[in-house]
């Protein structure tokens, strides 16, 4: 039976640290503040927003809500983001994506300055991750994967780490963060050959493909650690990851549950980034 790599332990440790730092900032007259920008009322966005607000309360971070209608144009959204970017009382901006199809995603995400791009969505922030620039903010979910491994004292140095998925949101940035920790990294995707062999030889697998039961018992080995980033919903409305948990859990050394794994750590990282942005301003 595998050890469950629950997110709560790691999230709480990060939260305690962020709260102390936020309190220190408040003693200087600075109120760390995150602007959450949402276009429309997508249920998944709203669910994440509720989780972020709860985590912000625990971290001592203020939230400034910006709710815009689905009819919002690219230019209207750019104006709002410019206002937030120029506001010295706003230290971080979280923009929910994907945006409605009529909005130019590239223009909008790159309108957020790197100093306030606390979820690492702009090209400048991403180039910082690839270039090893510690002043840029990495995507929160990607960094959450690393923090879970560290939080459970799982060594990364020299280990074989396989990332399933090559998206700009998780796959590619988490591969870069693993390299920063001196892991030996392989990125796999739908066109990868000998996938089962590559996965079985890994020490660590991070699955981020968004396909339920994509990683099963035929792909894993004993003594492996699995980080499941997938968020899927089954026919009964239950939240599921990418991993066929019941089949994989008896084999591997450790695995994150879904729910209860990466998600809570992601919101904690987000608040850490907001406070870091405020500290830089100080």
Brief characterization of the structure:
With 282 residues, the protein is of the alpha/beta class. It is built from ten helices and eleven strands. The strands form three sheets. A six-stranded parallel sheet has the order 1-11-8-7-5-6. Strands 3-2-4 form a three-stranded parallel sheet, sandwiched between helices.
Name the features.
282 residues; alpha/beta; Rossmann fold; 6-stranded parallel sheet; 3-stranded parallel sheet; 10 helices; globular
Describe the structure.
With 282 residues, the chain is of the alpha/beta class. It has helices at residues 7-26, 43-59, 74-86, 105-109, 123-131, 140-151, 171-180, 195-200, 245-248, 262-281; strands spanning 3-4, 33-39, 62-68, 92-95, 160-164, 184-188, 204-207, 225-228, 232-233, 239-240, 254-255. Strand 9 (232-233) and strand 10 form a beta hairpin. Helix 6 (140-151) packs across helix 10. The longest helix has 20 residues, at 7-26.
